[in-house]
Structure formats: C-alpha cells, structure tokens
Design a protein that fits this description.
heterodimer; A: mainly alpha; B: alpha+beta; five-stranded mixed beta sheet; 20 strands
C-alpha cells in the first residue's frame, strides 16, 4: 500500500510539472508583453525594459521557468502583475470559499443524482424512468452559465426566496451549489441507473432473490453498494469538472473563490495568478483522482492497490 | 412694497434652498452608501492603481498637491495651499498646508511629497505613471540608477516643495493633481512593502477600514480630515463580485446606491424609458474618442487617399445606434469636452461615393483586402462588423480579427502588426484634461515604437516639434492660446488621416434616490463613477 501511494504521489508530481511547463509556455507565448502592460502607456522603451528586467522577463525562457519552479518548490507563486500581491496569499484567501462551493455542489449532485438514478433503474422503462432520464439529459445539455442565470433570476429576483447579495453564507451557497449540482446530478442519475441495471443482472442478485431475501435487504446490502463503485471513481473526476464550472458560476453569483480570481486574471492577462490557479486546479484534480482510487478498496474489498 | 418684496424674496430663498441640490451649508454629515463592482479592486496604491474603479477610490484615500474643483476640470489647491510658477516655467514652488495628518496620525510634511514622487519614478516601483514625470530635472539619471534621488524635487523647509523641470511643461499642474503624485507616508510603505496597495495609508477624506478579498471593502470617514465638513458620509461599502444586471436590479429595489459598472447595454433603453429610473441616471461627456487606426507602414495605408477614403466610408450614425446613442459622432481626435477641441471643424463627411473616387485616385479602383483587429468584448465585434460592411461598400474587404484585448494591443504595438484596429474598449480616455494626453502616446513619434500605443505608427516630426512647443507654453495666462494651438495641431493630423475618429462615448452613471451631491458630481469628468468625498445621504439630512 505504501509503495502504491508513493508511486501515485510521484505521478502527481510529474503531472504537476508537466502542467506547469505547458501553462508557462502558453502564457509566455510571443505576442504578449506583460512588461509593457505593467509599465503603462506613458513608459518610454527604456522604462519598459527596466520593468522587463525587474520582472525577469528578459531572461531566456528556460531560465525564467527554472526560477519559477524553484520558487514554487518553496511555496512562492510569485506576485500578481496587476494587484502586486503575493499570488499564494490571494489564492489561500479564496480557496476556502471554493472548497465550500465544491462540497456543496458534490452534496447537491449526489442528493439529486443518486436517488433519481436508482429510482429510474428500479422502474426501468416506466414513466418515472423516462421522466428522470429526460430531466438528466436536459441538465447535462445545458451550459452552466444558463442554469446559473435562470436560478438567480427565478429564485433570487422573481420569487425572492434567496439572497442576491454576494458573500459567503449558507443561504448564498444554495444557488451556486445547485447550478453545479443540477448538471452533475444529471450525470450521476444516468450513471447510477446504468450501474444499478448492470448489478441487477448479476448472478448473485438472482441467487439472493432465490434464497428468499427481502427486496429491501437485497437492494441495500447488495445492489446499491455494488452500483456505487463506478460512482465513487466519478466523484474524483468531478473535481476536474468543477474547476472549469466554478469560473462561470462564481462570477455569476459573486462567490469569492479562486474561479472569480481566475476570471479576472485572464481578462487582465495577469500571468502569475493564471499560473497559480492552474497549478492549484491541477493539484486538486490529480489528488481527487488519487482519493477516488484509494477509496475503491473500501467499497469493493476485491480491489487491491498494487 | 420694498419690504414686502424683500421679505418675499427671503422667504422664497429659505423655502427653495433645501430643495436645491448641493446647498453645502445645509448638508448634515452622516449616513452610508453602498457601491457595487463586478471585479475585485486590484490595488489602492496611488503609484500603481490605474483602472477606472480604483482611480476614484484612491482619490478618497489620498491627496495630492493639487486637485480639481468637484464636477469640473478646474485645478484648485489641495495639500498645497498655494503655489507659484516661475516666469520661465521651469520652477514650481508649492506651499503646503500645516497640520494635515496621515491616517496613522503623523503630520504630512514636504519630505513626504518628495518621497512620494521619487517612489513613483523609481523603476523598482514599476509605476505605470512614472513616464509622465519625465520633465522633472534628474528624472533620467534617477531612473537609470545613476542618482539616488530626484534632483529636481527639493524641500527648502518642512512646508515648501520646489519642483524644477529640465524643460517647460504646461501639464505640470495636472501632473501634481494626478494620482501618481499623491502623498504616501514612508514608514507605512516600508512596513508593508509591495503590499502597501492592500494596506493604504494616506491623508484622504476616507480611511480603509476593512478589505475582504473578493467580497467587500469598507471606507470610513477620516475624522481628522483637514477639509472641514468633508466627507459627508460616515461609511462607504464597496461590494465586489456583483454582476452588473444584478446590481441594477438591486439598485432599483433600493438595496445599493451606485451600480459601479453602470447600466448594462441590454438594459439601457429600458432604464431610460422608465421615468422612475430615468431621473437617477446622469449622462455626461467623457474625455474619450473611439477610432479606427490605420498603420501607415502597411500598404495601402501608406497612401493618404486610402486613409481619407476610410474616413469617408464609415457611417457613424449607424454605429451610434449600436451603442444606444450613448455618445456623439467624432470628427477629430480630441473629444468635445477637451480644451483645444475645434468646434467648427467639420472633418471628413460621410460620402461613400467620394471615398470610392479617392481609392481610384490611389490606383485601387478595384478595392483591396485587409485585416481589422477588434477587442472581443461586446459591443466592439458588432461595431467592427458595421465598419466591415461600410468598407465593403467602397470595395475594401476587411477581415475581422476579434481577439482578447492584450493580443490586439500587442499587435498594434508591432510595426507591421495590425493594418487596422477598432479601438473600442481599449483606447483612448485621457488621464487628465489636457490635449497633450491625446497626442504623445497615441499620435506622436514617441509612441510609434515597439510596444507603443501609436497603432497607426504615424510620425510627423513637424507636428511633434509644434507639440513640444505647445507643451512648453507653461504660463497659465497663455492657456487659451495653447489650447488653440493644440486644436490646430490635431486639424493638421486629420489632414494626414492616420485615424478615422468615429465616436466620443458618454459616461452613464446611475445612483439611488437615497444619495445626492452638489451639482455635477454625478457627472464629474475626473471622478468616475462619482466623487466619493462630496456625496451625501438624504436620510441623514
């Protein structure tokens, strides 16, 4: 197990290095001049060169990346070009809000998706199954920003059931979490339905029925746990899905997380922040996947991590 | 009869006065206001802050030697209670007010003014405004690291600052009212270092009480502010992360006071049609011109007839409709509100037939193909499409390149980068109300450099020399003559037509019924969206 963990952590490190190199190259592509942007339009070419030197942008690309990587290893993500603040401080200040939103979104999607997927599976081909699947298809096909704006308009303005003020609270969490959760719930419903249908076809389920076990016992002790296995793997992948979703959803609702920070940084081409958020997102994704894999043996003892 | 008339007049005055906006003596201090913005505030460091959101906020936290009379572009004393300009225009002497305190309690003195100017000019600070102060003696040596101080700024005593220039510069008074010159306390800058922008300490009407990144900022009244009676409000809360459409709805419900990002284009007509919301809207001139730049290095824009033809081909009325008429058609580089604007200059008329004839004269009767760069934020791509259609009518096939702002700006700053650029959303709004601000960086030879903002790469050395001469007319008594000369310079620029000026956008502010201010502060050309010091709460009255 320890060997497996160490190997996986080494993979995590390799992925992060790869992501950092690719992102670095894209952001430092020719055609952009952050030094000119920082120096301002009144700066003479000499002044721009001075700023370029201060920012280390006059060094060869490989040297710039090495400087960035060595600072990164010490937890220093550099300073924002626009805000001049430490990127790590900016991200750390907003990370709890994003983490809370993700937890809320995961809770929503599981609450919506799992029961509805199970109901659809047990009532296969009946009206309830078709309704659930139609609903799932609808949400899965709808862009996040559209779901977000519709929820905001209906529940925030028309019905005024929920607040529209920005900020972090249980009440302000509901709509953004639902925006992500409804779409995710659609995916989970479909996945849960397929998984349960597959399990219901297994010999051991037929055997359990033949043995005379009560339906509820069969469902709760055998069908659902086995059906959940692929779902667990998906939760780890969800973190990757959410990382793109939070940019849109946080902006619509004014949720003060790293998605909103990333959106602003992209518009301002604030390279240090974009690099920092990308790396944090990549880290979250690979660790999420690792967590999903580590949880698999807990659900299915037959799985051995080697 | 006389007594009756007098009594009646006095009675009328007493009755009418409280209803007249901005009757300063009657304004009671107190109350609070909420402003919303979509994006977070980047920094409140006056040496660095350079976007339209933090610009006015910084003006409330800090002060400079000079300021502008609220609602106007007239320069008035601020931290300097008086000043003298030497007859040769090379020396400016400012006499500071006594007893002005920083928010940390220490008195502001001349050494602080020198420190602040040096900080802005220091390349380590990376101030985007450093270049403005290039005419201060010793600037080049200081920037190059050859001098440890800015030689041209001296402090004969604790309350006198002398600024010597290497050449006369008529914009100097504006530069001492510009944010980049605002006075900061050395001990606080050294304490916070590069994070000073998140922990600002100045002499301004408000202090920063709280800043929750991405959520809100709170300004509290500076009770030791040297201008008695200001600010009127006790507190201003800036809420961050608010979508403009949502902010507008909240304003209409009375939850917020100023929608900092203005009225979203999709809501504009609806807001103006409703009499209840219309009276909360102020539309004002901005020091802005949007234009199509034509790169004189890229054929066939090296021919003046082609550039003139483009000027005559663009249907400005149609483009104005795309922005709900929030502006006027432009016919010269300067906007109408700028000193030097030539009122009776007609510019190039809209005349596609004549435009085609000019192209034929240039040997391009069959037209030609080119690229039109535009920023990809609405409504600019739509405006670019309208321009594309106008050009197609005279045989010019313009291929639209709709890209992010940074890429377009970078292309414009390359000698053979972009043949045509629609400047909407990127350029140009003046940093201060002086015509030179519309020449140097964007039409002068000095801006026609790699990474520069002169996207037409236009360089007319004769006009540059005339511009330098105009800038040297530092005597305030000659301001009118100087403005007229600038007007003539820009008319000459239009003869060469490196630009096709299209429109001057207006600024639109909307505020709640709860707040008011002296005449003009919601239409203040210097403080956008509003002069925070001068606003008062009606429920505190």
């Amino acid at each position: 197990m320890t060997g497996y963990l160490l190997r996986r952590l080494a993979h995590v490190l390799l992925v992060l290095i790869g992501v950092s190199i690719i992102t670095f190259l894209i952001l430092h592509a020719p055609g952009r001049d952050p030094a000119r942007q920082v120096a301002g339009h009144t700066a003479s070419p000499e002044q721009v060169e001075q700023v370029r030197h201060e920012l280390g942008l006059d060094r060869p690309l490989i040297e710039q990346y090495w400087r960035y990587a060595t600072k990164l290893a010490q937890g220093d993500l550099g300073r924002s070009y626009v805000q001049r603040s430490q990127v790590s401080e900016l991200i750390l200040a907003r990370l709890p809000a994003t983490a809370l939103l993700m937890l809320g979104a995961i809770f929503c999607e599981l609450l919506i998706g799992l029961p509805s997927g199970a109901i659809a599976a047990f009532r296969r081909n009946r009206p309830s199954d078709q309704t659930v699947m139609l609903g799932a298809l609808l949400f899965v096909s709808t862009p996040q920003f559209l779901v977000a704006y519709i929820l905001l308009y209906v529940f925030g303005f028309k019905l005024q059931w929920l607040p529209t003020t920005p900020g972090v609270s249980f009440l302000t969490l509901i709509l953004p979490a639902l925006s992500l959760g409804l779409i995710g719930g659609g995916w989970y419903a479909r996945m849960m339905r397929s998984s349960i249908i597959e399990v219901l076809r297994q010999d051991y389920v037929r055997t359990a029925r033949a043995k005379g076990l009560r339906r509820a016992r069969i469902v709760l002790l055998h069908v659902v746990p086995n059906g959940l296995l692929p779902i667990i793997a998906m939760i780890g992948l969800d973190i990757g899905y959410f990382m793109s979703g939070i940019v849109v959803v946080e902006s619509v609702f004014g949720w003060p997380g790293i998605g909103q920070l990333a959106w602003q940084a992209i518009q301002q081409i604030d390279i240090p922040i974009i690099m920092g958020v990308t790396l944090v997102a990549a880290c979250a994704i690979v660790l999420g996947n690792l967590l999903a894999d580590l949880m698999a043996p807990l659900i299915d003892p037959r799985i051995k991590l080697k | 009869m006389k007594n009756l008339l007098l009594t009646a007049s006095l009675a009328a005055l007493v009755w009418a006065a409280p209803l007249a906006p901005g009757y300063a003596a009657d304004i009671k201090q107190g109350g609070a206001m909420t402003v919303t913005f979509k994006d977070d505030i980047s920094t409140l460091d006056p040496a660095i802050g350079y976007d339209w959101k933090n610009w006015s906020m910084i003006k409330s936290l800090f002060d400079g030697l000079l300021d502008y009379k609220p609602g106007t572009t007239e320069i008035v004393p601020d931290l300097a209670e008086s000043y003298e300009v030497a007859p040769d225009g090379l020396t400016y002497t400012f006499h500071l007010r006594h007893g002005v305190k920083f928010h940390n309690g220490r008195e502001m003195k001349a050494a602080d003014v020198k420190y602040s100017l040096e900080r802005t000019c220091n390349p380590k600070t990376q101030s985007p405004g450093a270049g403005y102060y290039g005419s201060i003696k010793g600037f080049d040596d200081y920037q190059a690291g050859k001098a440890s101080e800015l030689a041209g700024v001296t402090t004969p005593d604790d309350y006198t600052v002398k600024i010597e220039l290497s050449h006369p510069d008529a914009t100097t008074l504006h530069l001492m009212a510009l944010n980049f010159s605002f006075v900061v306390p050395k001990e606080e800058v050294e304490k916070y270092g590069a994070d000073f922008g998140k922990h600002p300490v100045g002499t301004g009407a408000f202090k920063l009480a709280e800043w929750k990144s991405g959520q809100d900022l709170v300004f509290e009244r500076n009770t030791d502010y040297y201008k008695k009676g200001l600010p009127h409000l006790d507190k201003i809360t800036f809420e961050i992360g608010q979508e403009p459409v949502v902010a507008l709805l909240r304003l209409q419900k009375g939850e917020i006071d100023i929608a900092g990002d203005g009225i979203p284009p999709s809501k504009y007509e609806e807001v103006l049609k409703d009499p209840a919301t219309k009276k909360l809207v102020t539309i004002t001139d901005q020091l802005n011109t949007d234009y199509v730049s034509m790169n004189v290095n890229i054929k066939p824009f090296d021919q003046v007839e082609v550039r003139q033809a483009v000027n005559m081909a663009i249907n400005k009325t149609r483009i104005l409709k795309l922005i709900n008429n929030r502006g006027v058609a432009a016919n010269q580089p300067l906007p109408p509100a700028m000193p030097g604007y030539v009122k009776d200059y007609k510019g190039y008329p809209y005349d596609p037939a004549k435009a085609k004839a000019l192209l034929a004269k240039a040997g391009l009767a069959d037209g030609f193909s080119t690229d039109l760069y535009v920023q990809n934020v609405d409504p600019n791509p739509r405006i670019a499409q309208a321009i594309q259609q106008d050009l197609a009518k005279i045989g010019i096939k313009a291929n639209i390149k709709s890209l992010d702002q940074g890429t377009v700006i970078a292309a414009g700053g390359k000698k053979d980068g972009a043949p045509m650029i629609w400047s909407g959303g990127m350029a140009w709004i003046a940093d201060f109300p002086d015509p030179s601000n519309f020449y140097t960086a964007i039409l002068g030879c000095g801006g026609a450099v790699d990474g520069g903002w002169n996207w037409s790469w236009y360089c007319n050395k004769d006009l540059d020399a005339r511009a330098d001469k105009a800038n040297a007319m530092a005597d305030p008594a000659k301001a009118g003559e100087r403005a007229a000369e600038w007007g003539k310079i820009f008319v000459e620029v239009m003869k060469d037509a490196p630009w096709a000026p299209v429109l001057n956008e207006k600024a639109v502010t909307i505020h709640s019924k709860r707040i008011a201010g002296p005449n003009g502060i919601f239409a203040d050309p210097i403080h956008i969206p509003v002069n925070y010091d001068e606003v008062y709460a009606l429920d505190a009255q």
